[in-house]
Design brief:
Sufe protein. Chain: A, 3-stranded antiparallel beta sheet, 5 helices, binds FE2/S2 (inorganic) cluster, Iron-sulfur cluster assembly scaffold protein, NIF_FeS_clus_asmbl_NifU_N
């Protein structure tokens, strides 16, 4: 399978790249499949709404495209809604990924969950 236009677009001009200075939820996961690393930064307000999100990755192009799309999808959402985001939702939004690249989208989804968990732990 070839990469879709959406994947190429999100890879060549990724949104929300870098570290968020004022992040109050940070999550990092590594992929057992390839050894790559993904870090997600979330700025969550008092109403538990994600005001901003960004990512840093030592991952491949599909990981960049997945996290660009995933961060875009959760901005403006509650942490409850964002926590339900599955990697398949990200893959669908990208118009599909080659089978060997599905695990890259898992990294993005898992790092978001880890960042939400980090926020909840700090808040508790
Ligand atoms: Fe490792 Fe894609 S191959 S994140």
């Amino acid at each position: 399978m070839e990469y879709t236009e959406k994947v190429i677009e999100n890879f060549s001009c990724p949104k929300h790249v870098g570290e968020l200075e004022d992040a109050n939820g940070v999550g990092q996961v590594g992929s057992p499949a390839c050894g790559d690393i993904m870090k997600i930064f979330l700025k969550i307000n008092d109403e538990d709404i994600i005001e901003n999100a960004s990512f840093k990755t030592f991952g491949c192009g599909a990981a960049v495209a997945s996290s660009s799309m995933a961060t875009d999808m959760i901005i403006g959402k509650s942490i409850e809604e964002a926590g339900k985001l599955k990697n398949s939702d990200v893959v669908d939004a990208l118009g599909g990924l080659p089978d060997v690249k599905i695990h890259c989208s898992v990294l993005a989804a898992e790092a978001i969950q880890a960042a939400i968990q980090d926020y909840k732990t700090k808040k508790a």
